[in-house]
Write a structure and sequence with these properties.
The chain is α+β, with helices and mostly antiparallel strands. Among the domains are: 160 residues, Chitobiase/beta-hexosaminidase domain 2-like (Chitobiase, domain 2, 2-Layer Sandwich); 70 residues, Immunoglobulin-like, CATH 2.60.40; 156 residues, Galactose-binding domain-like (Jelly Rolls, Sandwich). It is built from 17 helices and 39 strands. It has an eight-stranded parallel barrel with strand order 10-11-16-17-18-19-20-21, surrounded by five helices. Helix 1 packs parallel to helix 2 and helix 3 packs parallel to helix 5. The longest helix is centred in the N-terminal third of the chain and has 18 residues. The N and C termini lie far apart (71 Å). Bound molecules: acetamide and zinc ion (ZN). The site of acetamide (ACM) has 4 residues, from loops. Zinc ion binds next to helix 9.
Length: 747
């Protein structure tokens, strides 16, 4: 990076830089119909488009330019993009167009001004601002020039720009899957291009330790590799590689914040050095996903010595004054059963294991404070009081961040609802990301300033390679970049149009971007016949469908008849290319369709599916619980009354429940079925006891079916009992559970 010079007690920069262009023509007759494209992302705070454009074949700068690094960077960016060998930028005298770079009076925040007229370009800003000014200029060149065989044109305009948040982050998980140095650099380039400024680098996990360690070599020889069905998987970054990445990022004004997880998500470290855990028994580096019971022992001082030594090496590698220490998903089961941990609680007067977690975090904060570093932790670290200076990253919603700022701590918002880009597009699409505002309602102005920004998280359990990383990150990253740059000024329609202009650029940048939104949501319309109707937010899609034994057919008017139960498959196309995967919708046609349902305990806002119509809409859920068909009930029993309108003969009633214990979704324990003619007097018809599958892992659906009923009824009540909390032996012990269901099928 370019060194700052301190003058007169004020930070000032050497600033005059002259660019020159070979001016070819500003109003070339044959090009008189130039249409300016200003689809810059993130959209600058202020853009004034002017008449005309600048046309040039290359830039000529003043040979005394002090901004060699910025210029060289821009030159390289330009050359890499256009694959041109020759130089775009030359220095010399006799230049006929001049660009002045000037930062006087501007703060060191990355603010900049960019002015293009028919003869020159002017960029003003502090060092970081100049860098961002160049990124904006670069985008303008790419947006307005399809190729670089001819002179390039840049629309005349004035831009004044600054960011809304100082922390605009991207979390890359290199533990669940390992990404090469090249992929990481590609992402740093992309982050810089979209003016993001933090790479949160997740480097230690249950499934692998990814940093070369001098003092603890087994962290690499054992902890960096896991055995799965294909053999050994893993790797680590050498210290030299890490330094290379950090320098690469620094040159692009990106801060790398390493995450060293503790006290949980530490199986790889424990596998390397079993003395770090409570039981001190050998374990294997994890080769499945989830939350694991063995965590660092909080009662053993050698654990803190180990971590202090680890952090000695970490702070040598990472210049950032912030270190992320994780703190999430640390089950307390081992601590509850560990003599050392219990002794620690007694000696330190700690009322429970949550307080012990805070004790753990405080000790680490003290270790890092001695090294002049502050810590960031996930919102769980607020479970008990923390007095050290910590910043909170809020992920289980916004409440952790709100709690943090109310305690005067800084917060970074990355709620699962908007920021988890590892989630499927069905649950977080481009518009949903664009609707993200890191600042929730109800904060005062001081509290608002403590929210320093947001992050999108790319947990890589289901991101095995760069292709999948691209597909999950893009185009959603563009939305994140804009909301963090420009909160709260937003216009989705305008944004979506600008995104279209970026696809050709992303193609050249070798980004295998994914889709913007679900290409087809299937609605069932019930009258005499049932029609499946396709809806989508994506423009210009065409569909083919498959139903029953039929062959694949074009879907006319986005609508088809379905009068029996079955699976409807839909494939969308955009510009003759497949758009997204085949969408399959299971459909059940039954007596209860369209009937009204009353809820005793309401469904969650996060998993509401189609609201009160969900349980009788004829649509069944898939194994993806975020497919929009599942309705979720948090921490309470499921209890609904179905009104069949008239006395109806009933032979069977079934209801599906979903389980994925890693996401705290659990099949209920007992299910009861009641009938009534007036909703006053209820008669129990049948019940299913011991229906749960609490020990079973993975994602599955279990159908609760009441058969051979041979009854008549007008009202039906179903009660399914939730587990109030996961039992103590479970990794996520103590957490409340969800019940998920999709349809009440009446036959
Ligand atoms: C997290 O997603 N466990 C922070
Ligand atoms: Zn212990």
């Amino acid at each position: 990076m370019i060194a700052n010079t301190i003058l007169n007690g004020k930070v000032k920069f050497l600033f005059v830089l002259c660019f020159s262009f070979f001016l070819v023509s500003c109003q070339n007759e044959s090009d008189g119909n130039f249409i300016a494209n200003t689809s810059i992302i993130p959209k600058p705070q202020l853009t004034q488009l002017k008449e005309g454009y600048l046309e040039a074949s290359e830039f000529i700068i003043n040979e005394n330019s002090k901004f060699v690094d910025h210029i060289n960077f821009f030159e390289n960016q330009f050359q890499n993009y256009s694959q041109k060998k020759g130089k775009y930028i030359k220095s010399g005298i006799g230049e006929n167009l001049i660009v002045n770079i000037n930062n006087e009076g501007l703060q060191i925040k990355g603010n900049y001004k960019l002015k293009v007229d028919e003869e020159k370009i002017l960029i003003e800003g502090d060092q970081k601002g100049i860098f961002y000014g160049f990124q904006t200029l670069f985008q303008l060149i790419l947006l307005n020039n399809e190729n670089f065989k001819e002179n390039f044109k840049i629309p005349c305009l004035k831009i004044q720009d600054s960011s809304s948040f100082s922390h605009r982050g991207f979390l890359m998980d290199c533990c669940r899957h390992f990404f090469s140095i090249e992929t990481i650099k590609k992402y740093i380039d992309l982050l810089a291009f979209y003016k993001m400024n933090v790479l949160h680098w997740h480097l230690t996990e249950d499934q692998g330790w990814r940093i070369e360690m001098e003092k603890y070599p087994k962290l690499n020889s054992i902890g960096s590799f896991r055995k799965d069905s294909l053999g050994l998987y893993g790797g680590f970054y050498t210290k030299n590689e890490i330094k290379e990445i950090v320098n690469y990022a620094t040159e692009r004004y990106i801060e790398i914040i390493p995450e060293i997880e503790l006290p949980g998500h530490s199986t790889a470290a424990i596998a390397s050095y079993p003395y770090l855990s409570c039981e001190q028994k050998p374990v294997k580096v994890a080769n499945t996903w989830g939350v694991f019971k063995d965590i660092y022992c909080a009662g053993n001082d050698s654990v803190f010595l180990f971590l202090e030594n680890v952090f000695d090496e970490i702070v040598d590698l990472f210049p950032s004054n912030r270190i992320h220490i994780g703190g999430d998903e640390a089950p307390k089961f081992r601590w509850e059963n560990c003599k050392k941990c219990q002794n620690r609680m007694k000696n330190e007067n700690l009322p429970d294991e949550h307080a012990l977690q805070s004790y753990f975090i405080e000790r680490i904060a003290e270790i890092l404070a001695k090294k002049n570093r502050s810590i960031i932790g996930w919102d769980e670290i607020l479970e008990s009081e923390i007095s050290s200076e910590v910043s909170i990253q809020s992920w289980r919603g916004f409440f952790g961040g709100v709690e943090a700022v109310k305690q005067g701590k800084k917060a970074i918002m990355s709620p699962t609802s908007h920021c988890y880009f590892d989630y499927e597009i069905e649950s977080i699409d481009l518009e949903k990301v664009y609707s993200f505002s890191p600042i929730p309602n109800g904060l005062d102005s001081i509290e608002e300033t403590l929210i320093i920004g947001g992050e999108c998280n790319l947990w890589s359990e289901r991101i095995p390679n760069e292709k999948e990383l691209d597909c999950k990150s893009f185009p959603r990253l563009l939305a994140m970049s804009e909301v963090l740059w420009r909160n709260p000024k937003k216009n989705y329609v305008n944004f979506q149009k600008r995104v279209e202009s970026h696809y050709p650029i992303l193609d050249v940048l070798n980004v295998d971007y994914g889709i913007e939104s679900t290409p087809a949501t299937i609605k069932l319309e019930h009258s005499k016949k049932t029609h499946a109707v396709i809806e989508t937010k994506v423009k210009n899609l065409k569909y083919f469908f498959h139903w029953g034994d039929d062959s694949l057919k074009p879907l006319n008017n986005n609508k088809t008849i379905v009068n029996s139960s079955g699976i409807l498959s839909i494939q969308a196309f955009k510009n003759q290319r497949k758009y997204g995967k085949v969408i399959q919708q299971k459909i059940s046609i039954h007596k209860g369709i369209g009937k009204s349902v009353e809820y005793k305990n309401f469904f969650s806002e996060y998993y509401k599916s189609d609201g009160v119509k969900t349980l009788t809409d004829g649509k069944l859920g898939s194994l993806n619980f975020k497919d929009g068909n599942w309705q979720g009930f948090f921490g309470s029993n499921f209890e609904v009354v179905l009104d069949l309108d008239t006395m109806t003969s009933l032979n069977s009633i079934s209801i599906n429940f979903y389980q994925y214990i890693n996401s705290w979704i659990v099949i209920p324990k007992n299910i009861q079925l009641y009938k009534s003619t007036d909703q006053k007097k209820w008669t129990k018809v049948k019940s299913l006891e011991g229906f749960s599958e609490i020990k079973k892992r993975g994602k599955f659906i279990k159908e609760a079916i009441f058969q051979d009923l041979k009854i008549e009824s007008k009202f039906i009540k179903i009660i399914a009992e939730n587990f109030e909390e996961l039992p103590s032996w479970h990794e996520a012990a103590g957490s409340k559970c969800w019940i998920f269901t999709d349809e009440i099928i009446i036959r």
